[in-house]
């Protein structure tokens, strides 16, 4: 109805001026009262509601900012409370944490307790610069990294007794993190003017971020927290956006410490609230920006409702006005419609009805000729697109009659004709690395298609070459019924093979289909041709497959699979012998090739081998999904068409990643084994202890334990136990009045043997050592 209305409005300015004027008066009379009501409703109702909702939103933001401030204050109070705990007093400076392992264990428990005392705390570290620099994280570590020691000394030298910072000494593998940490530092002892350590609490970034997101309750907009220098401490966006940059720049340029304002960014208006969070030795600034639409969504819904009702009333007035004016002007409109058909542009130039119709006919005729010429120019591309759709089965809904009509339209003579398909596959691409680079497959296929096109023209009158851009092409041949064609197809296959061998230096596998009498048979036959190509010998040599002779090539009476080699490959991988595993995979492929050697058989055998290898990977405790980074390995392997490339793929993408991951995990397990042994030595060095005993406890043999104990500690097992016992004996000689015989028993030695070992290690006897200590 609206289109007809538009046609009436545009037609015949001279003849229809009365109609247009009458229609405008009807429209104004019906629609103006509704528009006035809509404007006044919005002005007096919606406007004040938007203002009140905006003020309510600002109060909500201030309350949530106060809650965030209370959370950070709670963390400061917890850390201060523990920093003044007697456990972190001045006695830590002279403490021997290795000898006094009970106190060390209590400190670790205390740090774990502190770490769990508040949901915002992620990790608590205790650094002490005493006899030797040590770090509790919360477990105890002897710290010998100069860079990390310098970082913690920086904490001791900077700031007041307690302060916030965004810098933290980290391990080298974490140094590339794009996030700044949020760290609270408290020097210890808490009541000392000369601190010798720090208690460092790092906050959970995700928890702080979730706490910050409460300031944007509509899950839209942006929220961030700035330090005293205006740098972003944490934001709800992983990367700084244009909105974040604009917000930060605007807030930093304002002289007031807190307030609200509106910001237009990217065509969206944001309500922005900001303020300060007074922290110890620092001032933080929070910023919360929410789109106005999120705040005033209920008001917008009401506004839209009023707008829809107003527009509906306007449309109703428009329809009623049109019906009324249409009724009045009906006789004149009928006559004008019969003469002009509502076309007015040429009538305005003074044309009569017949001149107008003749002009329109000439325009349509010229457009038809132009389209016919363009169709002739694009026929080759259209024909190629039609055949691709036909081969891929996209025209299955078409009848035989419709397909014949389409092919006749594109210039083919297909009456009383039969069809054959020739499939051409190029092999040996990966061997020619000096000629082709990765990604040149489409260019190589294009060159081969041009060669095939030129050679096919010498053999057939009707044919079409299709380029699939993946080192494969196809030729659809159309020939009259009863015409002998097998010899010509054989000749064409030979010519194509010679030309591609000589020009591109690649091998060719050609598959020739059986004959087809109907066009609807072509998609199914093409699928059979592609399947038959899989029965080629899986070697880089020229091959010609006739589907009519395929049963001779498809003798599957005996299936050979090298199970023994498969088992040996899995054993070599589990043993971590990369060279042996790669050599066995090569033998596996050679044996499969020597059995029947067709592409489909080789692919199925290699897929079976990969499935067995993946099962072995699962049994070893590794995740194939993580090891292969989510790749569809079966899909990649099934797409490989050359044996050499298949062998390289298996070695590079399966064997090497598995063995590297296995070796990495083995080193971790061996380190844990040595650490367990050291813990046992420290707990039982006063009694009789041996390498074999420790090996049995950790579940290995003495040779393996001895080898990796020295590798990870730098000294052998016996020397480590001896140094530990002699060190304990020195402490007892200096600090107690026990007899030397009793001290020997305390450290696990008999007295005569103890005297000899002590003199060998220290250079003097235990009695001489005590005399020097007392002097």
TrEMBL record:
Listed transmembrane segments: 23-45
UniProt cross-references to Gene3D superfamilies, sorted A to Z: Homeodomain-like, PAS domain
PROSITE patterns: HTH_ARAC_FAMILY_2
Superkingdom, natural source: Bacteria
Residue span(s) of domain HTH araC/xylS-type: 675-772
A GO MF label: sequence-specific DNA binding
Protein name: AraC family transcriptional regulator
Species for this entry: Paenibacillus soyae
Organism phylogeny: Bacteria, Bacillati, Bacillota, Bacilli, Bacillales
């Amino acid at each position: 109805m609206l289109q007809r209305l538009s046609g009436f409005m545009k037609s015949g300015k001279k003849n229809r001026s009365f109609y247009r004027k009458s229609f405008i008066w009807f429209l104004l009379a019906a629609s103006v009262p509704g528009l006035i009501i809509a404007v006044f409703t919005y002005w007096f109702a919606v406007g004040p509601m938007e203002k009140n909702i905006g003020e309510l939103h600002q109060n909500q933001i201030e309350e949530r900012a106060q809650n965030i401030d209370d959370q950070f204050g709670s963390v400061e109070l917890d850390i201060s409370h523990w920093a003044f705990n007697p456990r972190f007093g001045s006695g830590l400076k002279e403490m021997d944490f290795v000898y006094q392992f009970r106190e060390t264990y209590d400190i670790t428990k205390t740090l774990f307790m502190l770490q769990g005392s508040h949901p915002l705390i992620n990790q608590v570290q205790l650094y002490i610069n005493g006899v030797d620099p040590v770090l509790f994280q919360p477990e105890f570590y002897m710290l010998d990294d100069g860079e990390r020691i310098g970082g913690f000394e920086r904490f001791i030298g900077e700031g007041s007794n307690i302060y916030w910072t965004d810098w933290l000494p980290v391990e080298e593998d974490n140094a590339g993190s794009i996030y700044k940490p949020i760290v609270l530092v408290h020097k210890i002892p808490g009541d000392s003017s000369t601190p010798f350590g720090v208690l460092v609490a790092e906050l959970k970034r995700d928890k702080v971020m979730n706490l910050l997101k409460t300031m944007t309750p509509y899950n839209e907009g942006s929220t961030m927290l700035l330090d005293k220098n205006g740098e972003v401490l944490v934001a709800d966006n992983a990367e700084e956006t244009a909105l974040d940059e604009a917000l930060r720049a605007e807030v930093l340029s304002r002289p007031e410490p807190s307030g609200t304002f509106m910001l237009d960014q990217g065509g969206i208006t944001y309500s922005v609230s900001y303020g300060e969070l007074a922290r110890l030795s620092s001032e933080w600034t929070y910023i919360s920006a929410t789109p106005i639409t999120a705040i005033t969504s209920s008001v917008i819904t009401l506004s839209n409702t009023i707008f829809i009702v107003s527009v509906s009333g306007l449309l109703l007035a428009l329809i009623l006005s049109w019906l009324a004016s249409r009724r009045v002007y009906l006789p004149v409109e009928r006559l004008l419609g019969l003469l002009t058909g509502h076309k007015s542009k040429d009538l305005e130039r003074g044309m009569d009805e017949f001149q107008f119709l003749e002009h329109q006919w000439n325009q349509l005729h010229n457009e038809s000729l132009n389209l016919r010429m363009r169709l002739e120019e694009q026929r080759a591309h259209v024909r190629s697109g039609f055949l691709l759709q036909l081969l891929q089965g996209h025209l299955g809904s078409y009848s035989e009659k419709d397909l014949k009509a389409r092919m006749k339209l594109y210039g083919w003579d297909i009456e009383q004709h039969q069809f054959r398909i020739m499939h051409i596959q190029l092999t040996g691409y990966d061997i020619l690395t000096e000629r082709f680079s990765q990604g040149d497959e489409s260019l190589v296929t294009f060159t081969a298609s041009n060669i095939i096109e030129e050679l096919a023209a010498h053999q057939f009158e009707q044919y079409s070459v299709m380029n699939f851009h993946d080192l494969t092409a196809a030729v659809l041949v159309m020939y009259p019924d009863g015409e002998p064609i097998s010899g010509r197809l054989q000749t064409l296959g030979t010519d194509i093979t010679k030309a591609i061998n000589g020009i591109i230096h690649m091998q060719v596998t050609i598959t020739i289909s059986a004959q087809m009498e109907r066009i609807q048979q072509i998609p199914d036959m093409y699928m059979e041709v592609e399947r038959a190509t899989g029965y080629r010998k899986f070697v880089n040599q020229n091959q010609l497959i006739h589907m009519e002779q395929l049963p001779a090539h498809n003798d599957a009476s005996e299936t050979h699979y090298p199970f023994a080699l498969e088992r040996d490959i899995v054993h070599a991988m589990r043993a971590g012998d990369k060279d042996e595993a790669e050599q066995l995979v090569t033998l596996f492929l050679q044996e499969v090739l020597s059995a029947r050697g067709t592409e489909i058989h080789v692919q199925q055998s290699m897929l079976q081998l990969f499935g067995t290898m993946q099962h072995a990977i699962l049994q070893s405790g590794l995740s194939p999904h993580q090891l292969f980074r989510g790749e569809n390995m079966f899909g990649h392997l099934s797409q490989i068409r050359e044996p050499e490339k298949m062998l390289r793929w298996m070695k590079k993408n399966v064997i090497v990643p598995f063995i590297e991951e296995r070796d990495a995990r083995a080193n971790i397990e061996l380190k844990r084994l040595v650490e367990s042994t050291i813990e046992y030595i420290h707990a039982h060095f006063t009694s009789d202890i041996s390498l074999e005993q420790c090996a049995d406890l950790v579940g290995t043999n003495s040779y393996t334990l001895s080898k990796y104990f020295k590798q990870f500690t730098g000294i052998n097992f016996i020397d480590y136990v001896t140094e530990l016992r002699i060190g304990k004996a020195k402490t007892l000689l200096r600090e107690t009045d026990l007899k030397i015989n009793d001290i020997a028993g305390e450290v696990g030695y008999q007295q005569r043997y103890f005297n000899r070992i002590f003199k060998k290690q220290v250079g003097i006897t235990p009695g001489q050592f005590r005399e020097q200590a007392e002097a």
